Amino acid sequence: MNLQPVMQRDGCELFQGDSLALLREFPDATFDAVVTDPPYSSGGFTRGDRMASAVNKYQMTSSGAAHVGFSGDNRDQRGFLAWCSLWMAECWRVTKPGGIFLCFTDWRQLPTVTDAVQAGNWLWRGIVPWDKTEATRPQKGWFRAQAEYVVACTSGSLGPEQERAGPCLPGVFRCAVNSETKHHLTGKPVRLLRELLGVVPPGGRVLDPFAGGGSTLLAARELGMPCTGVELNPDNIEIIRDRFLQAVMPMPASSPSSSRPPQPPCNPLSDPGKP
Ligand SMILES: C[S@@+](CC[C@H](N)C(=O)[O-])C[C@H]1O[C@@H](n2cnc3c(N)ncnc32)[C@H](O)[C@@H]1O
Fold it and tell me: For ligand 1, atom 18, which residue shows the shortest CA distance?
């Protein structure tokens, strides 16, 4: 097992490989939060639909963009539940008591992911919908496919609310995907990740075991939070490297544990959003 990071930059370390195998090498209680977006193993309505390539499932032909595909997105439902339970349990082990777990999913996989987090020892605390705005695909005679979901958990109790630090955060985040600044087939807006990371104590160490195009890592960097990413696909490793090289926002001058840079909001709900 090669535990040498393939990138170390601006407080971020990136490993290339299978996340389940790599997570098993990380020490207990290393991270303050896991914020991740695994392969959904979703798409369509039938088992045949799910077996299509990630590009065929998730790339709108009208978008004009061409992104590389990724593996791990064709598990059947029982395999997906078992696999998620395994890596989520490893995430729980490497997270400090009271730490946070946020996991993206879609409507199809929401019940499976909420089962898997509990099988992986996490305390499931709720769902935070991500409203992708009216820029998403309309469906004639049916509801627009406008939302994805963040399954929100903690490692045990957060303690009494009156004794907790930190801001009161929105329960819904509205943020459009901008195809011009999307670097991965299913890339999430960095701005959305920045806002979600508001639940993590300043300076907290963040893990993303399915780093993709690196949106979580870039958001953590912008907030001055040390972070660790794992990504299987070498094309995506190159994308993350390039994005870090091109990222211009400076690290905060003062200690990351004492301040956060000002944040342009994804919300309020009337904001159609830019990345
Ligand atoms: C949904 S994408 C993440 C996108 C990311 N949140 C972004 O905004 O760019 C999931 C990623 O997990 C990676 N992946 C799939 N199986 C993996 C595994 N076993 N270990 C590590 N990465 C894996 C895929 O290559 C893909 O890039």
Answer: 18
Does the Cβ of 75 fall within 6 Å of ligand 1?
Answer: no
Q: Is 215 helix (H, G, I), strand (E, B) or coil?
A: helix
Measure the CA–CA gap between 219 and 124, rounded to whole angstroms.
24
- Measured from the Cα of 233, ligand 1's closest atom is 25
Q: Whose CA is closest to 226, among 188, 256, 262, 249?
A: 256
Tens digits of per-residue pLDDT, 64-118? 566 766 777 788 899 999 999 999 999 999 999 999 999 999 999 999 999 999 9
- Verdict on whether the full-model pTM lies above 0.85: yes
**Annotated domain spans of the chain:** 7-259
Ligand 1 binding pocket includes 233 (Cβ within 6 Å): yes
The residue whose C-alpha atom lies closest to atom 8 belonging to ligand 1 is 187
Give CA–CA dist 6/64, Å, rounded.
31
**7-259 maps to CATH 3.40.50.150:** yes
DSSP H stretches of helix in the chain: 19-23, 47-50, 54-58, 77-94, 110-119, 190-196, 215-222, 234-246
* Two structure tokens written together for 191: 């701005």
